[in-house]
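tool_call predict_complex ligand=zinc ion
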Amino acid sequence: MRLIGLCCALAVAVIAPGALLAQDGGQDASKSVAPKVMVAAAKKPVPSKKKVAAKPAGPPAKELFGAARTPAAMAARSIGFYAKGCLAGAAALPIDGVAWQAMRLSRNRNWGHPALIALVEKLATDAREHDGWPGLLIGDLSQPRGGPMLTGHASHQVGLDADIWLTPMPDRRLTEKEREDLSATSMLAEDKVSVDPKVWTNAHVRLLKRAASYPSVERIFVHPAIKKALCEATAKDSERAWLHKVRAYWGHYYHFHVRIGCPKGSTNCEAQPPLPSDDGCGKELTDWLALVKPKTPSPVKPGTPAVSKPGITLDQLPSDCRAVLANGSEGLIPAPPLAAKAAAGSKTATPAKVDKNGATTK
Ligand SMILES: [Zn+2]
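tool_result ok
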């Protein structure tokens, strides 16, 4: 099985097939859209008498943020919402740490709010020290200035989301090429609604429990089959409160997605709606499993034309994101209106959202 890009599409708040989602802008490239979102999406296009808003000028924000190679030298601040925002003063996760290695270095997405970087490092070292987990392989965090991405992910925009592989770290340093090419391991069994006991272990349970144990972590997204495995593995445990933060979502069987809350000082950071109060092992899980169960021999979700979405423009992000982009001398300041229009004209040729690994994201 091939993996892909380890990304996540999450956006949001999640949760139940039926309960959820807020504000995301949708899944990313992925196509996986939580039920609620689909409903919302279906509603939107209904023509109404609403005036059509003026067409936003300028290139898609993902092109601008995707071109930023360095962080904005400003005080660290997560600005906006997980799926619609940006990041000032990002810190880089070192590509090698005592208990982690960053993957897919060419993407330059090992950036995050310093609080997220500290969390990832702590999880890596704690899990190795206490949980028998040899170290973390780290997938995407955010771009140097956050913001929308050209490929993958609807969220990961404000430096508070991290994708962590469910593949244990090898006991050697991977080469740069290996970090590009190595495929993550799917945890799913053939039936796609349970985990494969040949690859899923108790150490995975301990790792996810560890990740959920930190107060700053608000959500962890995993595939419904993994959520089921966690519910079953802990059925007799007296301490199960941590399961509350771990919610089922599309994708996320090669990696899990850790999301921390708005850090102190990020005054324009928009919090997520609270999770349902239950542990997510009941009806919510049953519904999710029904959703992900393969219906026909066409397991791959049909490629909806997500690819044609132009994406939001800088004007549609929180206004502070303009300063984040303009900081320094990278020449990232958005083009003036005329040039911007010309650029917009060529955007149909913009790269599709399938990521370089062939991923459709998750
Ligand atoms: Zn993710």
